[in-house]
Write a structure and sequence with these properties.
The chain is mainly alpha-helical and about 210 residues long. The protein has helices spanning about 1-5, 10-25, 45-75, 80-105, 115-130, 135-160, 165-185, 195-210.
């Protein structure tokens, strides 16, 4: 009875709406302790603190989008195995959501006011990817994680050198994203067409440029 109830369309809708509201509101619980816990705290100037907060807000928005992508891909996956894969990846990504939100609070800042818009857009993209089939959906994950890994690597160069807490979080996120991309590749991901990759890069630039400030 419980299994049938879980698969009822109304229950899936309620579950999805609940996840979306929690992600947008910045409510997330990590299954792993934050990598910043053992990093030394350091004094930051006002401009350095503001800059670090802007970068971590961008990273938080990236995780909001990741949750939307995985939630939509899990919901519309063609097979139960793929559904479980996307759900598991989404749970692992929730650590990143919690870590970045916590670090933003420590920096005296907030999450992006544009989170609802970013979540809706990413959910729509994930839905389209899922309807193209599991191989294409996995290919989209591989390309997304590749771009995110490069983006996180650039943040390691841009964060204040003494901000060990933010840097520890970003480095662990980078390691996790590489692993997620490799897992999707191993499951039979199709190559994402060049035009789609270019569009993804353009959307990422729009997101990062606005989330840094708003």
């Amino acid at each position: 009875m419980a299994a049938n109830r879980y698969h009822h369309p109304l229950d899936r809708f309620i579950s999805g709406a609940d996840k979306a509201l929690r992600v947008i509101a910045g409510v997330a619980s990590a299954s792993r302790p934050t990598p910043a816990a053992h990093a030394a705290d350091a004094a930051l100037s006002e401009s350095e603190q503001r800059h670090a907060a802007g970068l971590m807000r961008v990273n938080h928005v990236g995780e909001v989008c990741a949750q939307a992508l995985y939630n939509s891909q899990a919901r519309f996956a063609k097979s139960d195995a793929m559904k479980l894969q996307f759900e598991q990846a989404g749970r692992e990504e929730e650590d990143h959501l919690a870590w970045t939100a916590q670090r933003l609070a420590e920096l005296g800042s907030r999450t992006s006011l544009l989170n609802p818009l970013f979540y809706a857009g990413a959910y729509a993209v994930g839905t389209v990817a899922a309807y193209l089939g599991d191989a294409h959906s996995l290919g989209f994950v591989v390309e997304t994680e590749r771009q995110v890994e490069a983006h996180l690597a650039s943040h390691l160069d841009r964060l204040p050198p003494q901000d060990a807490k933010s840097r520890a979080i970003v480095e662990q996120m980078r390691v996790d994203e590489v692993a997620h991309g490799a897992a999707a590749q191993a499951l039979g991901a199709a190559t994402t067409p060049l035009p789609v990759r270019v569009v993804m890069q353009g959307m990422a630039k729009l997101m990062t440029g606005s989330a840094y400030y708003i």
